[in-house]
Amino acid sequence: MSLDRSVRWHALDPQGIEHCHVTATARDTRIRSVLVTPAYGLFYKIKLDEAGQSRTIRLERTDGAVLELFSDGAGNWTDDRADPLPGLRGCIDIDISASPLSNSLPLWRCDWIIGQPQRFAMAWIDTEAMTVQRHEQIYTRLDDSQFRFQSAQGSFERLITVDGDGLVLDYPGLFTRAA
């Protein structure tokens, strides 16, 4: 994948805005983004390896809270003190609660067959609590621009619309692309 572009989203619940820049080359993908919500501001950066697997993630809120995670690309995670995070074992991708960008990570990394669901173990980051935990998620490609997203833990489900680069255009009730 080759990509060098900026994208903005409006958060709908709670209201906010995100400005994100993605630079992808054959070597790696680097993402830098800033979010502004009613409760906090947040800057994050993500580095993916050449296979699209999450390797480093750093989130920093304007109140000084920081969360930094490191992965070997094979699903083994450590925190900023190099302490292992066994609860995340097997997670390849991350999901940042306040950002639709992280929905693109498994979409970019996998081969898709229309109608065939794929299950992912995600390192889900709660940006309000600045904590991380394992979440099981299911994505199903419905056509060239739509994916069904389901939480394996409950009844949450949305039809996510993406553009040709796999970036979210519409995530009903949560995010929409800014014009």
Q: How are the SSEs ordered, and which strands pair?
A:
Elements: E1 3-12, E2 15-24, E3 29-36, E4 41-48, E5 54-61, E6 66-71, E7 77-79, E8 93-96, H1 104-109, E9 117-126, E10 131-141, E11 146-151, E12 157-162, E13 168-171, E14 175-177
Parallel strand pairs: 8-9
Antiparallel strand pairs: 1-2, 1-14, 2-3, 3-4, 4-5, 5-6, 6-7, 9-10, 10-11, 11-12, 12-13, 13-14
Keywords:
179 residues; 14-stranded mixed β-sheet; globular
Explain what the structure shows.
- With 179 residues, the chain is mainly beta.
- It is built from one helix and 14 strands; from the N terminus they run ββββββββαββββββ.
- The chain has a 14-stranded mixed sheet.
- It is globular, with a radius of gyration of 15 Å.
